Amino acid sequence: MGGDHGPIVTVPAALELLRKHEDVCAILVGLEEKIRPLIPGELPSRLRLHHASEVVGMDESPALAIRNKKDSSMRVALDLVKSGEADACVSAGNTGALMAISRFVLKTLPGIDRPAICAILPTVSGHVHVLDLGANVDCSPEHLLQFGIMGASLVGALEHKDRPTVGILNIGEEDIKGNDVVKRAAELLKESGLNFIGNVEGDGLYKGEADVVVCDGFVGNVALKTSEGLAQMLATFLRQEFGRNLFTKMAAVVALPVLKHFKRRVDHRRYNGASLIGLKGIVLKSHGSADSFSFCNALERAADTVRSGVLQRISERVAQQHTIQEVN
Amino acid sequence: MGGDHGPIVTVPAALELLRKHEDVCAILVGLEEKIRPLIPGELPSRLRLHHASEVVGMDESPALAIRNKKDSSMRVALDLVKSGEADACVSAGNTGALMAISRFVLKTLPGIDRPAICAILPTVSGHVHVLDLGANVDCSPEHLLQFGIMGASLVGALEHKDRPTVGILNIGEEDIKGNDVVKRAAELLKESGLNFIGNVEGDGLYKGEADVVVCDGFVGNVALKTSEGLAQMLATFLRQEFGRNLFTKMAAVVALPVLKHFKRRVDHRRYNGASLIGLKGIVLKSHGSADSFSFCNALERAADTVRSGVLQRISERVAQQHTIQEVN
C-alpha cells in the first residue's frame, strides 16, 4: 500500500513477477477494496489477496506505527513472514517504520546487534553492495564488522562468490586517515578472516574496488543521496543541452539510440530493492517513488534472496566469527 | 611545486593569470632550476621567482613536514603570506601538510577553533559552497556553527549576498533525523542569526537548496569523492556507448557540439580551488591532478578572495556571534 503511488504500482508489478517466474507465489497485503479492482478478471492461481485495514503513513513515526497500527499492511505482511506463510516481504513504504516493525516482529539474527540497509550501486565494472544506508546513524566498530559479515554473506549467497572482497568507506587510502571508529573497525575487519581490502574512498565506490563496502548509516545515506542528486542534475543538463535549438534537437534524434542505451545502463530502477539485512526473515525496501518496472525488480531481488539461503549463511558466518574471536 | 604534475602546470597557469588580470602580481615559490626554464624569455614585470630548496611529498606526514622541511615551497609561500609579502597562497600539494603548515604559520582567526576546507560544487541553478571537505573528521556542534559563519561570510563577501542561505547536511528533512552532533548544531545555527534553512539531504546539495552547506569533514569528503567517482563513471559509460560501433560513432560526430557544451558546463576544472578558511590569511588548495586551465582557475579564485575582504568579514561576524550568545 505504501510508497508514493501505492497499489497502482505494486499490483501490476506483482502480476509481472508471476508472469516472469513460474515458481513464485505472491500475497498482496492491504486494503482489499483498493487492490482487487486493479487485478483484471479472475485472481491468478499463484496470487492471493490478504486484507489489512490500515496503512502506515510515509511520514508517520515508527514508534507510533508499531503501537497503534497492528492491522497495517506493513505489520500484517511482516507477520506473514514471521509465521512462515511468506518467505519475504517487500515494501515501498516508510523506511523507518519498515525497519522498526521488522525488528519488532522478526527480531535480529543471533550475534547481530543491528540490522542494516544494504543496496546495490552500479560500478564501472559491475556493481557493489553498500551498507548501511541509513538505519544506524551512529555505529560502533563492532557494528561495522557485523555489516561486513552480513554483506559478504549476502554477496556470497547471491553471486556464488567464495570470498567476496570487503572494504570500509573512508576519506583516505592510508591507514592513518579517518576517525577512530573507522580505524578500529578496519582492525576488526582485518582480523575477521573476511577478504578485507582496506579503505575505499568515495570515488572507489564506483570504481568497483570491492564487492561490499561498509559504512555507518549517516555517511552511507549521504553518499547514496548525493549520487542521486548528481545523476539527476547531469540528466537535466543533458536534456537542456539537447533541447537548446533546432540543431541540437536534430542531434538528439540522431543520438537517441545511443542515449537510450546509456540511460538503460545507468537506470537506477534496475537496482531497486534494498535488503533490510540482519533480521530473522527477508525484508526488502523499494524506493518510494518506484514505478511498476522498478518495483518488480525489487520483487525479483526478494525472490533471489529467498533462493540464496542467505540467512543461514549469515548465521553460520557469525558463529564462525565468535570462534575466531575466542582464538585471538 | 606540488600536485601530480608540479611546475609544468603551475608556471603556465601563473603566466595565464598575469595575462588575464593586470592588477595581479605572482610569486612562484620553489626550486628555481625547475621553474626558470618554464618561463619563456625575460621574467615578466609582475612575476617574481622565490627560491625554496625543499618540496613536501604528496604522501609525507604533515607533522614531519612541519618539523623537517623549513625551506619547503609550501612553508616559504605561507611565510610570505604571514609577512604580508603575498596576499594569498595557492598550492596543488599535499592537503594535510598544507592545512597543518597553514595553521602552524598563520594561526586561526580569533573565535575560530578549526579551519575548514570549503569548495564550490555546481547545482541545477548555480553553485553551492560546502564545508568541511576533509580537514576535520570529528566535529562538535560548535565547530559546525563556526563553519556556517565562515561559509556565509565567504559567500557574502565573494558574491555580495546580504544573507546567504545556510543548510546542514543531514539524512532526513525532518528535525528528528540525524545524529546528536548534527541535531545540536542545527539548534545552534537556528539561534545564530544566520539565514539558516535547516536540513539539506545529499541530493539537496545539487538541487541548490542553500548557498552554503555545512558538514563534518568525513561526511563532506565522502560526498565530494563519491560525486567525482560517479561523474567519472558516467563519462566512461557515455564514451563507451558513443564508441560502440560505426553508427554510434557517427552519432557522436553529430552530437559533438552538444556534448562539448554539456562537458564545459559540468567541467570540474572550473570549480577548482578550495579555500582553507578560518586562518589569518588566504590559502587555497588546488586539486592535485589539476592542469594549467584548472590551476589558473584556483589562482583567479584566490585573487577574488583577496579582493573580497573576507577575513575581516569573518572576524566581524564571529564578534557579532559572541554578542548574540551573551544575549541568549
Explain what you see.
Two copies of one chain form a homodimer. By secondary structure, chain A is α/β, with parallel strands linked by helices. Chain A folds into two domains: 1-112 and 278-309, Isopropylmalate Dehydrogenase, CATH 3.40.718.10; 118-273, Isopropylmalate Dehydrogenase. Chain A is 51% helix and 15% strand. Chain A contains twelve helices and ten strands. In chain A, strands 3-10-9-4-5-8-6-7 form an eight-stranded mixed sheet, sandwiched between helices. The first copy, chain A, has a two-stranded parallel ribbon with strand order 1-2. In chain A, strand 4 and strand 5 (126-131) form a beta hairpin. In chain A, helix 3 (62-68) packs across helix 5 and helix 6 (141-159) crosses helix 7 (180-191). The longest helix of chain A has 26 residues, at 217-242. The radius of gyration of chain A is 21 Å and the shape is globular. The termini of chain A are far apart. The mean pLDDT of chain A is 92. At the A-B interface, helix 8, helix 9 and helix 10 of A face helix 8, helix 9 and helix 10 of B.
Helix content of chain A: 40-55%
Quickly name the level 1 CATH class of the largest domain in chain A.
Alpha Beta
Distance between the termini of chain A: 49 Å
Let me know the largest β-sheet of chain A: 8 strands, mixed
User: What count of structural domains of chain A?
Assistant: 2
The CATH homologous superfamily of the largest domain in chain A is termed: Isopropylmalate Dehydrogenase
| Assembly state | homodimer
Work out the radius of gyration of chain A. 21 Å
Q: What is the helix tally of chain A?
A: 12
- The topology string of helices and strands of chain A comes to HEHEHHEHEEHEHEHEHHEEHH
